[in-house]
Here is the input.
Amino acid sequence: MLDSLTNFLYIVAAMLFVFGLKMLSRASTARRGNGISAIGMLLAIVTALVSDNLIHWPWILIGLALGSIIGALAARLIAMTSMPEMVALFNGFGGIASLLVGWVEFQRLYSDEMLMSAPWNDLLIIGVTVLIGGVTFTGSIIAWGKLSEKMNSKPILYKGQQVVNAAIVVLVLAAVLLVSIGRPLIVSGKQLEFLSIYPVLIALGVLSFVLGVSVVIPIGGGDMPVVISLLNSYSGMAACAAGFVIRNNVLIVSGALVGSSGIILTNIMCKAMNRSLANVLFSGFGSGGGVKSGTDFVGEAKPISVEDAYPVLEAAQNVLIVPGYGMAVAQAQHAVQELSSILQDNGAEVNFGIHPVAGRMPGHMNVLLAEANVPYDQLREMDDVNPTMELVDVALVIGANDVVNPAARNDENSPLYGMPVVDVDKARTVIVFKRSMNPGFAGIDNPLFFGENTRMLFGDAKSSIQSLAAEFKD
Ligand code: NAP
Here is the structure.
């Protein structure tokens, strides 16, 4: 009876997760979706705790209190620009938690001397949990280090790297196999003490840590967001495996949901960058500079002052704002929101064109603009705004570069060629807000800056936009 009730409540929790996830796919319902998923998680945790009579309450309460304090402080204190690294760190915590679940369960079997009779598939799952959990933990720590610039974000490459990585993978798989056999190794009738299976599990954990580091160090800082969505997926798979280890249905379901949605997100990111996952993982691209464009563009960029930009915007009826990584660096989102309101009060229609890989993490621009209370219905996807670009009077490019580079459309020699971009060059007038003629993440020139209809407003995006807003107020 209790079992049926527990499973029923788990199903309700799983349904809340699914509805919550569905709502996360639209900006207007995302906040509610997050809340619904959180209620599902609360229900799952309370049900798991109440239905298990082996729970040591003092430990649970200490963990609950510590976790809640750390979570609440992180949510309040971490700046929006630090979100990518925080997500990386949290993925890592998910991985290490799953690894610990696998380890504790193995110890239980080992100390009860049940190992000899434990089914091989249970032990295999323990091995897989430790493997994925370990890789996720150290991989996420490296991702966090690169994103927070605590370590050099350039790819770390050395001769024979692929061979070393392949060797670690072989060792790790051998260790998983030995763990799943689960018996101390007997050679010529003698038990090999030094190869008893417990040290093999410890070795598996250590090798997984090494593998996590070695697969993430060759990836450049700019590509970390793709890696994060992949590690996010791994943390889900590790949790799913941990669910099998402790036979908890709701952990299996929630882990599978995180694992599969992480893979879908990784796929979306790769498509938006027109790159394959293999290319991101093995090419050492994404160093944040230094990659050269195929074609050199000659021409002169035409600067514009705030005073001269004002009448152009004052007369505009249809304005498209395209934010990029520079908006995050300048923390210009509130100023942008203020300018957008001023333009609307002035009678213009204002929309935001959001490129899926603008910034440095999935949804980066959406998060920043939501923080500044830009209404969700003004946020339009790239595919929505491109067909009507000719109707746009003024496109304001705020710290975006690669995601508005027309070479991605026109120049077969460009490394960006084939990546869909926001076609701002087709708008009647383009005003680009950036500090210099420096390239963006891909390290390549941008012919947009030399276009007949483009004007460059040099300076920090936040102060330029605040000055423009001040012109309107005057
Ligand atoms: P971007 O190409 O990196 O360009 C950002 C621009 O912002 C720079 O050209 C920089 O020029 C300008 N900038 C920086 N600080 C500024 C400030 N304070 N004020 C004004 N401008 C400032 O950015 P993006 O167009 O958003 O493109 C994103 C790139 O990251 C793409 O290549 C994408 O493939 C890559 N990427 C994104 C993700 C993701 O998840 N979003 C994942 C992996 C890779 P100045 O220095 O001259 O000011």
About this structure: The chain is about 60% helix and 5% strand. The pocket of NAP is lined by residues 222-223, 225-226, 269, 273, 324-326, 329-330, 357-362, 364, 399-403, 433-436, 438, 440-442, 460-461 (CB under 6 Å). The longest strand covers residues 318-323.
